[in-house]
Amino acid sequence: MADTQVEPALRERPMSPHLQIYTPLMSMVMSIVHRMTGVALFFGTILLAWWLAAAAIGPDAYASFMALADSTIGRLVLFGYTWALIHHMLGGLRHFIWDTGRGFALGMVDLMAWGTLIVSVSLTLVIWFATFRMMGAM
């Protein structure tokens, strides 16, 4: 008999909200992207370690790494790593500002989220443009 009394209460429990229920907000999207860039940085750091190890091992190992890095796919990966690094850093600064108790006004939250995206893309493009310019590729 105790089971029949508990069962109706279980049926009336509310479901936990999920991404399919919420309307995506810019700050919510940036939170998800921040986590994704963190994962990308983990794997990108393996490439960074490979580059440093290849430089330490010698010219042949370094040439092997550079052959991959100079390829189209390699440059796309390095471009993505650059963007992920900058975006994650700016997202961390945004969270740091929130940790001080500032920036919680509704308009400011959206402004900071858009700013993180726009500034990260802009800085990535500036860094890559400057790098190609210094290399004489432009």
- Beta-strand proportion: under 5%
Described by the principal axes of the CA atoms, the overall outline is: elongated
Total count of helical runs of at least 4 residues:
5
Fraction of residues in H or I helices: over 70%
Please give the domain count: 1
Whole-Å distance between the termini?
Answer: 81 Å
Indicate the CATH topology: 3 helical TM bundles of succinate and fumarate reductases
- Give helix and strand order, one letter per element, not per position: HHHHH
Radius of gyration: 23 Å
Determine the structural class based on helices, strands and strand pairing. Answer: mainly alpha
Biggest beta sheet attributes: none
What's the mean pLDDT score? 89
CATH architectural name: Up-down Bundle
- At the first level of CATH, the class is Mainly Alpha
Core attributes:
80% helix, Succ_DH_cytb556, 5 helices, mainly alpha, Succinate dehydrogenase cytochrome b556 subunit, SQR/QFR_C/D, electron transfer activity, 3 helical TM bundles of succinate and fumarate reductases, 138 residues
